[in-house]
Design the sequence.
């Protein structure tokens, strides 16, 4: 009887589950990232270029709340370079006697400052929507780096010059985010001939966001490879030892 | 020379006693999960202690304190990954360990207290897992604690009181984190004590150690070096798998909601417990009545506790037919539990609801029908 029920359950399992939505985000084409795959690691020069694009374009709306300037040391910069980089940002030092915020240059132990003083200011500046935090962007959203790259390059003028803008890679195909690159037309970065400067910028900034989202990504993979091979070697020795010891036991 | 009453002497004696423990010859790799679990639990304990040095049980700071562990503390990512992946591995091997117990029926009289103690340890582990899942205070934690509060509310009479004790308020927040942190931390020490007792009981229930531990007598072999070498190999293989999953497939033990800070205003579309608690979660979803679902989910744990009394078969199978029938039914029970978990993973969409209900009948019929009634089916065969 349990056998019969089991096969019945297997039959029911085989029936397909259909759940398709017209406004579901489009599937982003797969890109050739330096960090994808088991042996992939981040191309740090691309990450550094991506930081510049982030500072020029993204940082005016998006926060990077979990990141400190000192984390940029892992981008291949020296301590001096990081503190110079940090001093180009302003952070709130204290509020004066009237409650107005007073700013100072950031140091490498500061967090990346938010472009807004509070959440309601963020909402007001962005048509009632808070721009998502970029600290864990590729980990949170399904599709990861491929989807972000496709999203950045797929704004079209369908909705005119007013928000919400049309973009096939978001839920509902409409986004409050303004096109990040000018001119804001749909780009084709798939073939090499049309791969222009904007495509490169999008690629770099996506690499930067993926790098920020995966702290210790390269160390993790290096640790995995080293510890994995080491353990494999010890397993081999332990297996030989076990065989030799058990050879004394009569079956 | 150490005196016969010094601790060193005592531990030496204990070590020799354990090394000479007589063991049966034919124990396969299913019997190594206990050793693997010990190693994982030690790893979890040490990494947990290190995390507790940085973790802040406060609703506004908990999430970023753990982000800091990964980003700012040297090798913090390793400590946190060990703890996160370790939780999944612990339950994976714990389930296999329980399955081994059911499969080879390790709950007969000298071992009955051992089985009951093991079931209690499993319950404590589940409590630790639930409280640990809430600690990072990400989206998954927030909504998991909210749902756990609602589940507790369905308990008749004392439900709202229990919910209040659990959450420390109307909704999850700093008070919840404080009590979950204390629970997680204290239970970790308790569980270590429990495991030491579990191992001690295991070795006492085997009977007095053999005077001579040569392999010729009674077909027994000493624990060391035979089973130490086997356990060592199994532990290394488990560590290898652990490393591979931790470094290359971290998403197997993490969900996207883990990376979002808790947000009471945004309900994620698919709230889910960690995979190791999917079976009771799925049972609660499959039963239309809330209290019925709770009873059904609790019943699966109670059934485990009751197995020594439910199983009416003689300790040693009289014939092979009976033995293979037991192995077969036990496997079917495990497959049905996996199907129930899959249903919970897919949120009972489409035909999953009926499949899960069917699997639940199969699952419970193993405990309620097969175990008590099977001796009567084989009654005629016993004399042959």
Sequence:
């Amino acid at each position: 009887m349990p056998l019969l029920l089991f096969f019945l359950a297997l039959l029911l399992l085989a029936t397909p589950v259909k759940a398709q939505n017209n406004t579901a985000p489009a599937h982003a084409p797969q890109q050739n990232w330096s960090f994808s795959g088991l042996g992939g690691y981040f191309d740090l020069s691309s990450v550094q270029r991506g930081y510049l694009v982030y500072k020029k374009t993204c940082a005016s709306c998006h926060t990077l709340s979990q990141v400190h300037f000192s984390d940029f040391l892992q981008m291949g910069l020296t301590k001096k370079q990081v503190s110079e980089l940090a001093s180009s940002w302003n952070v709130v030092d204290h509020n004066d006697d009237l409650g107005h915020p007073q700013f100072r240059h950031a140091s490498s132990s500061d967090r990346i400052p938010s472009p807004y003083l509070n959440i309601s200011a963020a909402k007001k500046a962005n048509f009632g929507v808070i721009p998502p935090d970029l600290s864990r962007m590729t980990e949170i959203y399904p599709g990861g780096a491929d989807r972000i790259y496709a999203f950045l390059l797929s704004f079209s003028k369908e909705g005119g010059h007013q928000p919400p803008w049309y973009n096939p890679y978001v839920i509902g195909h409409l986004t409050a985010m303004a096109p990040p690159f000018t001119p804001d037309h749909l780009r084709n970065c798939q073939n090499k001939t049309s791969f222009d400067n904007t495509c490169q910028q999008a690629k770099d900034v996506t690499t930067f966001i993926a790098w920020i989202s995966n702290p210790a990504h390269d160390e993790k993979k290096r640790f995995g490879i080293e510890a994995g091979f080491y353990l494999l070697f010890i397993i081999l020795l332990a297996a030989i030892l076990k065989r030799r010891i058990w050879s004394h036991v009569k079956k | 020379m150490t005196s016969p009453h010094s601790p060193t002497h005592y531990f030496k004696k204990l070590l020799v006693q354990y090394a000479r423990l007589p063991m049966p010859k034919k124990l396969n790799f299913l019997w190594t999960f206990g050793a693997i679990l010990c190693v994982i639990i030690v790893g979890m304990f040490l990494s947990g202690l290190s995390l507790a040095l940085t973790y802040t049980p406060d609703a506004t700071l908990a999430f970023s304190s753990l982000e800091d562990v990964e980003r700012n503390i040297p090798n913090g990512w390793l400590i946190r990954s060990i703890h996160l992946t370790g939780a999944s591995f612990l339950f994976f091997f714990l389930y296999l360990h329980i399955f081994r117990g059911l499969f080879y029926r390790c709950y007969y009289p000298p071992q009955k207290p051992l089985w009951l103690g093991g079931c209690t340890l499993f319950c404590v582990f589940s409590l630790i897992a639930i409280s640990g899942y809430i600690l990072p205070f990400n989206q998954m934690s927030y909504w998991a604690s909210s749902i756990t509060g609602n589940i507790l509310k369905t308990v008749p009479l004392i439900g709202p009181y229990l919910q209040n004790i659990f959450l420390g308020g109307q909704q999850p927040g700093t008070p919840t984190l404080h009590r979950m942190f204390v629970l997680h931390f204290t239970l970790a020490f308790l569980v270590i004590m429990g495991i030491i007792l579990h191992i001690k009981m295991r070795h006492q229930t085997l009977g007095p150690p053999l005077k001579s531990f040569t392999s010729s007598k009674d077909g027994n072999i000493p624990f060391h070096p035979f089973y130490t070498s086997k356990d060592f190999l199994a532990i290394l293989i488990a560590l290898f798998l652990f490393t591979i999953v931790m470094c290359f497939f971290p998403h197997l033990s993490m969900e996207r909601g883990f990376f979002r800070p808790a947000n009471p205003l945004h309900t994620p579309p698919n709230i889910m417990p960690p995979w190791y608690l999917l079976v009771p979660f799925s049972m609660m979803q499959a039963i239309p009545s809330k209290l019925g679902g709770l009873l059904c989910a609790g019943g699966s744990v109670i059934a485990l506790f009751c197995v020594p009394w439910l199983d009416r078969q003689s300790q040693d199978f009289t014939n092979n037919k009976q033995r293979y029938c037991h192995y077969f039914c036990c496997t079917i029970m495990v497959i049905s539990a996996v199907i129930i978990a899959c249903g919970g993973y897919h949120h009972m969409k489409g035909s999953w609801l009926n499949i899960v209900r069917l699997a639940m009948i199969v699952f419970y019929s193993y405990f309620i029908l097969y175990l008590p009634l099977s001796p009567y089916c084989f009654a005629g065969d016993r004399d042959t």
Remarks:
- Chain A touches chain B through 50 residues (CB under 8 Å).
